[in-house]
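Researcher: Go.
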Amino acid sequence: MGRLSDLRPPLTTERLRLEPLTHDHTGLLVDLDSDPEVLRFVFGRALTREEVLTEHLPRRLREDGPPRGIGYWAGFEEGRFVGWWALAVDDSDDTTAELGYRLRRDAWGRGLATEGSHALLDHAFGTLALPYVWAVTMAVNAGSRGVMTKLGMTHVRTDVEEWDDPLPGAGLGEVRYEITRGQWTGVTTSAAARPRRRADGTSAGRASSSPHRGP
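Model: Structure:
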């Protein structure tokens, strides 16, 4: 049987080039997950190369997402790898996808997580016509929650579970955010109506894909 088609397109924004994640990006992913601070709200520690290769890479490269236009993308700013973004497969609902992102520490605080996520939501709703997209993070992860809020996502619930080895803050639970296609249309229509300003105060037109939308 031939290899299934990959319908994930390359995506570009004002500052980012997002390309479909493949085995060619393995070394970059290993390096990303070797920073314990990057994984502070995920595992609370760095991952070994073996853990990335055997446990996590197969999930990021699963073959049932790309034929549907979803999966993972590797992000580059001026040719430098800055992290990954995802519309991950939801095994319980094939009409939606889970938004995710993980950035190198030196790429934090400049709006790149929001900018790349904006491009993925444009693809999810504009190209794939998904009815909604969701995301989860720890309740104490203020940075990730800020990205979701900037994207126009709504906090719909908080789930508190018992863990054998809980991370700091786990007692406050995990929060789920969602956004529908109709809500996204409202967000992008509102953004298009506002002129962007360059540093010199002059107006700038919209980029061909997503604009820089804050930190």
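Model: Confidence is low (pLDDT under 50) at residues 197-215.
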